[in-house]
Amino acid sequence: MAENLYPEVLVKGSGAIKVATVGDSLTYGYGLNDRNIEAYPSILADKLGSRYQVHNFGLSGRSLQTTSDFPYFEEDNAKLSLLSEPDMVVVMIGSNDSRGPYWNKERFTVEYRQMVERYQSLVSQPDVFVVVPPFVPTSRFGLNNAIIKEELQVIIPQIAEEVGAHSINLYPLTEGHLEYYSDGLHLNYSGNQIIAEEIFSQLIK
After folding, report:
1. Are 77 and 9 in contact (CB under 8 A)?
2. Are 166 and 172 contacting, i.e. CB atoms less than 8 angstroms apart?
3. Integer Cα distance of 187 and 134 in angstroms
4. What pairs with residue 128 in β-bridges?
5. pLDDT tens-digit readout, 18-37
6. CB 184 within 8 A of CB 173
7. Which residues of 164-188 are buried (b: 16+ CB within 10 A; e: fewer)?
8. Separation between Cα atoms, residue 97 and residue 71, nearest integer Å
9. What percent of the chain has pLDDT over 70?
10. Interacting residues of 103 by C-beta distance below 8 A, sequence separation 6+
11. CA-CA distance, 178 to 201, in Å (whole number)?
């Protein structure tokens, strides 16, 4: 259980171009048989090839907002992502923020923009890719798919445009595809393959 909550950073590849993948359990690879192979950052590393190294800074159960129970940016992995001198940063966070006790549109918008600008201001001057999270098939984990569909699909691309980041929208790619999910929230290997392919296609444009 501690491994899921406070994992070591998983690094795949040894190339000179560093990619930091930042986010919650969907980045970490929760529920997979072998996240070293099946999590989207690992699949992404295979697709990018030998010139790259991909760091998985994902942490299960974390949210963006500082008022949530488990804010991502108070954790060691988040701090390590800021020290990793990345050339590219892929951020997929916000699913857990859709929970009723957490969601505050104004606060989320302010803190999301601050997060993006924080990565952009790193000495390594990375290209930052912000990701609208996938569809959430069930509310049994307390997440609200309507927030992702109606709010995050607007907020995240808008912030990207305003600050000069890149945006990737996984929601329409996954909406209604229950075959991509293992438990109503987390993606199975097929789901991770689908989103890794989409992220890969955006990174190499």
Report:
1. yes
2. no
3. 9
4. 89
5. 999 999 999 999 999 999 99
6. no
7. ebbbbbbbebbeeeeebbeeebbbb
8. 10
9. 97
10. 97, 144, 147
11. 23
Name the residue type at position 101. P
d(CA 16, CA 123): 16
Beta bridge partners of 63: 71
DSSP label at 179?
Answer: G
CB 67 within 8 A of CB 99: no
CB atoms within 10 A of CB 161: 11
Residue type present at position 82 = L
Evaluate whether 127 touches 166 at the Cβ level (below 8 Å): yes
pTM of the model: 0.96
| Count of beta carbons in the 10 Å neighbourhood of residue 100 | 10
Q: How far is CA 124 from CA 31, 83, 89, in A?
A: 33, 10, 11
pLDDT band at 5 (very low <50, low <70, confident <90, very high): low
Rounded CA separation 125/118 (Å): 10
Tokens of 102: 């957490």
Query: What are the residue ranges of helices labelled H in 101-152?
Result: 105-120, 145-147
- Give how far Cα 139 sits from Cα of 51, 82, 97, Å: 40, 32, 13
CA distance 23 to 30: 12
Task: Give the type of residue at 37.
Answer: I
